[in-house]
Amino acid sequence: MDLVLIAIVLGLLAVVYGFVTSRQVLGADAGNEKMQEIAGAIQEGAQAYLKRQYTTIALVGVVVAVLVAIFLGWLSAVGFVIGAILSGVAGFIGMNISVKSNLRTAAAAMKGLQQGLTLAFRAGAITGLLVAGLALLAIAVFYYVLVNVMGLSLSDAGERRIIVDALVALAFGASLISIFARLGGGIFTKAADVGADLVGKVEAGIPEDDPRNPAVIADNVGDNVGDCAGMAADLFETYVVTVGATMVLTLLLLFNSDADVFAGLVALPLLIGGACIVTSIIGTYFVRLGGGTNVMGAMYKGFIVTAVLSVPLIYFVTQYALGDMNAVIGGENLGAVDPGAPIAEEGTSSIAPFTGMDLFWCSLIGLLLTGVIIWITEYYTGTNFRPVRSIAKASETGHGTNVIQGLAISLESTALPTLAIVAGIIVSYQLAGLMGIAYAATAMLALAGMVVALDAYGPVTDNAGGIAEMAGLDESVREKTDALDAVGNTTKAVTKGYAIGSAGLAALVLFAAYTTDLAELFPAADVDFSLENPYVIVGLLLGALLPYLFGAMGMTAVGRAAGDVVKDVRAQFKEKPGIMDYSEKPDYARTVDLVTKAAIKEMIIPSLLPVLAPIVVYFVILAVAGQENAFAALGALLLGVIVGGLFVALSMTAGGGAWDNAKKYIEDGNHGGKGSEAHKAAVTGDTVGDPYKDTAGPAVNPMIKITNIVALLLLAALAH
Amino acid sequence: MDLVLIAIVLGLLAVVYGFVTSRQVLGADAGNEKMQEIAGAIQEGAQAYLKRQYTTIALVGVVVAVLVAIFLGWLSAVGFVIGAILSGVAGFIGMNISVKSNLRTAAAAMKGLQQGLTLAFRAGAITGLLVAGLALLAIAVFYYVLVNVMGLSLSDAGERRIIVDALVALAFGASLISIFARLGGGIFTKAADVGADLVGKVEAGIPEDDPRNPAVIADNVGDNVGDCAGMAADLFETYVVTVGATMVLTLLLLFNSDADVFAGLVALPLLIGGACIVTSIIGTYFVRLGGGTNVMGAMYKGFIVTAVLSVPLIYFVTQYALGDMNAVIGGENLGAVDPGAPIAEEGTSSIAPFTGMDLFWCSLIGLLLTGVIIWITEYYTGTNFRPVRSIAKASETGHGTNVIQGLAISLESTALPTLAIVAGIIVSYQLAGLMGIAYAATAMLALAGMVVALDAYGPVTDNAGGIAEMAGLDESVREKTDALDAVGNTTKAVTKGYAIGSAGLAALVLFAAYTTDLAELFPAADVDFSLENPYVIVGLLLGALLPYLFGAMGMTAVGRAAGDVVKDVRAQFKEKPGIMDYSEKPDYARTVDLVTKAAIKEMIIPSLLPVLAPIVVYFVILAVAGQENAFAALGALLLGVIVGGLFVALSMTAGGGAWDNAKKYIEDGNHGGKGSEAHKAAVTGDTVGDPYKDTAGPAVNPMIKITNIVALLLLAALAH
Fold first, then answer.
1. A354-355 and B328-329 as β-strands: parallel, antiparallel, unpaired?
2. What are phi and psi for residue A422, nearest 5 degrees?
3. Phi/psi of residue B31, each to 5°?
4. Per-residue pLDDT tens for A89-98?
5. Which residues numbered 114-173 in B keep a CB inside 8 Å of some CB on A?
6. Which end of chain B is less congested by CB atoms within 10 angstroms, N or C?
7. CA proximity to B60, closest of B524, B708, B719, B706
8. Which residues cross the membrane (chains A, B) (predicted)?
């Protein structure tokens, strides 16, 4: 059977799993009328927001699609549209499952912790498997159509180029939508959250999720459109870009190999993705408490089962695709280059020799790296370890020391992931050169089904807690949802660390694609990518600046939109004085509508920054110092974005999670508990961490990818 | 007259200015007995701290000096010791002037704003000119002894190598002391400041600088040992490293030039430094209010006079040193390389051709860049502009939004300086290749006398305010010192932005010295510095990690030491209940002693990070991937540190200054003024900004330089 068809079947399996499981989830008890009413309001708000967001993005998308069609041809435009639409679909489904499972999780938590966990995790698993499945299907079906239906030949340089351009355009579509979704959703969720807290907890003195707060529905809507829809679109993008980049690199570097081996190599990333969908589905059934109350332990069980089962399956598909695990690929077939030699030194065909076995080992590195990043993230954001406890302790001496310690932890938290990524780069490069790095990244992303499941579980439990509070359910229900939610803070941070970590590897692959493309499309250009070339330094500095500027814009946007929320809530309290004694109902929809408009408005300019920056830098340096230096600066910009962005994103996401859980740790009765001075300081830290971890930090990941992809498209457009 | 002798004379001129002016300052009215008593306590504490700090550093210094002697010879060890001692002397003098001028400034402010400004600024000018003068003398005298006394010949490769190694060792001595001084002083000042605020303002409800607070003297000591001694050592280091690196680069790259031109070129950076000492001295006399109350305007006058007068003087010394401003140097003399060609591509002798006129233009770029950075810093930290006002406004909605907006501003504030530095790199490189960048950096640092004067003025006024408060002087005196101090926040931020900006340029020069050294010392090594080499990526990532880890350590250290202060003050309040009603006196010395011990203990490990990191990275990569990749990773580490460090340092120093002045802006009566909720939020922001701007941020500058210098020394040691 054709390798790509197998991948398509496995992708469809994920979709089937999604449908079957969602029937189970939707069949569960939906709670009482009050709960349904609240959930209905959340659902309505989330759908209204996504509708408006996607309408706005569609306008940008149509313009970009036309530009892609003009500069790169209609096939690329089709790829762009497929990537864009499916990225949107992934977000839409994630949000829809989430808003329907929140009240059911609250209802299930009435029966017990295990029941609540099962329901919330299943809801997460639907989103996770659908994200991975749709991403795999997007590339596999598109590639299948290009090669098997349209008959583009892998052995023809021109037709191979068409395939490459189309795959890059597909990734561009996914990335462009995902940055809007991540940022728009991130601004929405945190503006509502911060705004609701400021005016509710601080000014009016009413608890979180109190139904008298007009911003409370907006806050819950935010969990769904930011943490769920935005996250799903982001991980869809990460998957498509990583697997796509590995295929593109194979197409660019290994075309001189034996035709069968070459075809198998191009399809292998898809097969690895498919294999891990199977193991992710199996893993979901192992997420159970087993008697205790260790929610994080239950999550680990599921992840470990998935990762361990993936090992033999990846071995099997690699052997199946390549035939002989020990046959040498690359190297002598392509011009005898030393294993340690720099990539593409002599043009497009130089690549270190490697075997299928090497790729297998590199895939294991990817699996291992995922596990290590999960473990590090738990250390930095879990309530059982030094970092979170040090922030909680620092809260005793006030707001200032809480924030100082939180910032210190956020800076520190970059160290171990960076060392892990560096080790991953070195070992996989030693094993199989650049292809090794690509396979490590691919294997990381292959686990996306399971990792996203862990993450998407978070907003569901968060919402369930909100519904339990607003519907006035028994205190014990809220306790259970809080226990589930505390883990949610860690799993949410995990996905972000994982996404940015994989982006670190994927960006290297994309940069290699850039240099290889450059050599192929502009053979006469003698571009000097050496650190000794000042234009390389210029590119690195400008690239590293982008995440800072982007982060500043995201943080400011949240502050501004939250200010609007505060004003609206104050106005509602004034207009309807009966709200506080429950004699009047706040106008929830008005606040939702206001945050919607603010988030949409605020997301546009920062999202365009990574799209326009590579183009501007290229043309400015072109004017000042000629084309070769412009290419060098542009290439360095791509690496500058990743070198700068990795640290900004890691520090923001881990720091934000740590602040949030330090607050939860205090609320659990430590350092004075709820209402103490330490708790007030911890609330400040949590507020500061909010836009860090849910707006600016996670959006850096698609930002890095967009910058890289735009550079690839720019090269293609210049060459056309 | 010998060119180097002229530079020595001009350096001595700065010392003479320092002596004459300090007699004037010390001759001024020293206020009443109460003031003298307080100032005496501050002075005693500061001297005790510096004594202990220098004793500790001396222990480390002796060990390092022995290592330098063993691996690089006794001449390098002598250079190291000179650099180290003079760096310490610069800090010591700065501190001493500061502790003697603070009470005199308070006394002068009793007479009027202009009188206070004159005295405080003169005190700053003494430190500024002595820093610049001593730095110039350190290099000029050492170089003079090497060449004119010991008779080392510029035309002999081996003897030239001895000169290079000795100059690098001199820079190393300066840098090593300066990182300890910056970090130790930074931890001291902010631990005392944060601790005093937390327990005084927040817990006991007594105002800032209240004599009942046992930490109040420690807080004032901190201004002198951190902002003054630490800053002076830092700028001494920056000067020595930048001017030294330019000379080293000349020695390495241009030795094939005509002997007279070569000798002139090597001495030219010293002459430019000397010329700007003259203009800085003249400039100090133009810092006057001229009737109004615009303190920042008075500062600008002095700076602009210095910068404008420097233009013809730099032209003159360049012509004097080189003879013909339009004769081509480099280029064809050295093997005909294109102007835009990468540096050192063909070994040590390839350098783009340039003329004296080109160097002159590049020096002007350095002057311009300094002005632009001052202007940008004022925009981001001054109370008249959007950034500070946006933080003040965000304080209205609470602690959280204050910090969010402050972080957003701190991220944003990196953009314009980066763009300015990038523009400076491009234009100066276009004009004169790498030497152009070196001259832009040298001209920036040549203005150090004036820039440090503006900075050192800050802690003097800060202390004067404290003394006025503690001595119970009339409210109007405190108002005047507050007006002077508000500008101090900006000028302190200016120096940090300036130091890190010049470090951006100097690091490029140091990196070029590294690659040139590498080619000379290991001619057989074919090191690939291309971004396509994964070990380059590994080096960039590890380098960018260093400032994050370093920042985390600095922030944590402040938090920990501040916690100790809080506990001690609480204990004193308990042991001596009469403190609050003035019937008992707090034991100030005990708190000073405690902070001293804490700061010394906490400074060691972070300071060793940049010393050990290059060595560890080299040997780890050597073991894993061989020497050529180890050299590549090490080189990339150097650039990674600057790419990462530039943003960390810029964001921390500007952000911290903005937070501080947002508090001041509210205290001026905006957004509710002192005591309002907005003010409390602004105090939190100020506390957060404290370790940002005075501990972690500024110490990044010497950290970058140390990493680079250790790499150069490592090369030399490996080659020996």
1. unpaired
2. -60, -45
3. 75, -170
4. 998 988 999 9
5. none
6. N
7. B706
8. 6-26, 54-74, 80-99, 119-146, 162-181, 236-255, 261-286, 298-317, 359-382, 403-427, 433-454, 497-515, 535-558, 604-625, 631-654
Instruction: Retrieve residue B210's tokens.
Output: 């209240």
Q: How many CB pairs under 8 A join A and B?
A: 267
Nearest to B414 by CA among B697, B681, B606, B706: B697
CB under 8 Å to B226, separation ≥6 — which residues?
B185, B186, B188, B189, B190, B459, B694, B695
Q: Give me the residue label for tokens 């830092």.
A: B234
Residue B652's nearest CA partner among B678, B690, B683 is B690
8 Å CB contact between A554 and A186: yes
Quick one: pLDDT band at residue B350, thresholds 50, 70, 90?
A: low
Residues B557 and B71: their CA atoms lie apart, in Å, by 33
Residue B341 pLDDT class (50, 70, 90 cuts): very low
pLDDT at B260 exceeding the cut of 80: yes
In the predicted model, what is the mean pLDDT of residues A298-327?
93
- Of B344, B541, B651, which is closest to A418 when you measure between CB atoms? B541
Contact A711, A174 (CB under 8 A): no
CA A209 to chain centre: 27
**Calpha distance A170→A179 (Å, rounded):** 15
Whether residue B276 contacts residue B316, with contact meaning beta carbons closer than 8 Å, is answered with: no
The per-residue DSSP string of A282-345 comes to HHHTT---TTS--HHHHHHHHHHHHHHHHHHHHHHHHHHHHS-TTSEESGGGGT---TTSPTTT
- The residue type found at A485 is D
Give per-residue pLDDT as tens, B276-312.
Answer: 999 999 999 998 887 777 888 888 899 999 999 999 9
Q: What does pTM read for this prediction?
A: 0.93
| Residue at token pair 């003050």 | B569
- The label of the residue with tokens 């600016």 reads A696
Query: CA-to-CA distance for B421 and B415, rounded, in angstroms?
Result: 10
d(CA B335, CA B346) in angstroms, rounded, equals 10
How many CB atoms sit inside 10 A of residue A112's CB? 12
* One-letter-per-residue 3-state SS of A615-656: HHHHHHHHHHHHHHHHHHHHHHHHHHHHHHHHHHHHHHHHHH
| CA–CA distance, A601 with A102 (Å, rounded to integer) | 28
Helix, strand, coil percentages for chain B (3-state, nearest 5): 85, 0, 15
Judged against a pLDDT cut of 70, whether residue A171 lies above it is answered with yes
Which positions in chain B touch A643 (Cβ < 8 Å)?
540-541, 544, 640, 643-644
Residues of A in contact with B401 (CB under 8 A): 194, 198, 559, 562-563, 687
Please indicate whether, in this complex, the C-beta atoms of A422 and B542 are within 8 angstroms of each other: yes
Residues 6+ apart with CB under 8 A from B156: none
CA A117 to chain centre: 23
User: Which chain A residue lies closest to B510 (C-alpha atoms)?
Assistant: A532
Rounded to the nearest angstrom, the minimum Cα separation between B201 and chain A is 11
Phi, psi of B383 (to 5 degrees): -80, -5
* Whether A272 contacts A140, CB under 8 Å: no
Tens of pLDDT, residue by residue over B401-427, are: 999 999 999 999 999 999 999 999 999
Quote the Cα angle for A175-A181-A184, to 5°.
Answer: 135
Token pair listed for B125 = 């000018």
Nearest to A425 among B344, B534, B683 (CB): B534
Half-sphere exposure of B76 (CA within 13 A, CB side): 25
Percent of chain B, pLDDT > 90? 63
